[in-house]
Model the fold of this input.
Amino acid sequence: MRIKHRHYLPLCLALLGAAGSIGIPLPVQAVELMKWERIPLQVPLTVGQERIVFVNKNVRVGFPPELNGKLRVQSTGGAVYLQANSAFATTRLQLQDVENGELILLDITALEGKQVREPVSLVYQGEVSSATGSDNTSVSAPESGTTKNKGQSTAKDSTPRITTPLPIALTRYAAQSLYAPLRTIEPLPGVHAISHGLSSTITSLLPSEPVTVRPLAAWGAQGVNVVALKLTNQRSGKVVLDPRRLQGNFTSATFQHRWLGAAGTPEDTTMLYLVMDGRPDAAFLPEPVMPVAKTKGKARGSTTSAPAGETPHAN
Done:
């Protein structure tokens, strides 16, 4: 369902009092409200003009490669800025909520012309309806904790919950985020990207095997975190991966593949997903400290240091 209406918002609010006192008309800008109901929203663009979509959520934007060079996309602070550099047919954009993985679909079309496009603001709750016989609109939402009919769930009760065991759900979400197309990632309520705080290369995790370990990304939900690590074989022989050889304090460990091929082959790299409670950097063993090399003796003709209180001099 998509209902278009104009909702006028005054600009230059800092001048509101002064402008009103001397009778200067304030500039206004129309905003088109669109309600997201899992039906792709139609968002036309005019070539050369920027159009803003207020998503009001932190989102990642995905679009097909054929739009490279034809569309400029910027996303920040819950707003997506779209500008078409050339005309193109209807193409679908995917906006993924980074908090829970939910997808919002936009069907955009770029047309030549001079028509000025209004900013779009997405609405997720309540009803968007047009008043009879006028251009005015009303946006209403039920009060929190109330029900319309007997037996209907409250808004709080309708909050999505994770029914799969959390380590399994986080591992699956991490694998899909790295390998699966954006549109196929299953939403996971409450999940969010985190900083793993690990060094670029980890040697203490699998010291018995000739592999390099590099952390790529981490996610968390409900105090449980998952870290995705890239494993690469460094020798010419096959390496069988055994989770019992991992060093650290982890809830679960999952290898993308059970073995690594010889170095230099397409099979020499895989992913490891580690789930732990609390901070990721606290679950790994400390990296070994390299000993400082000691000098074997004084080189002939080398300069010596003077005792305390004396000044060194040349021989």
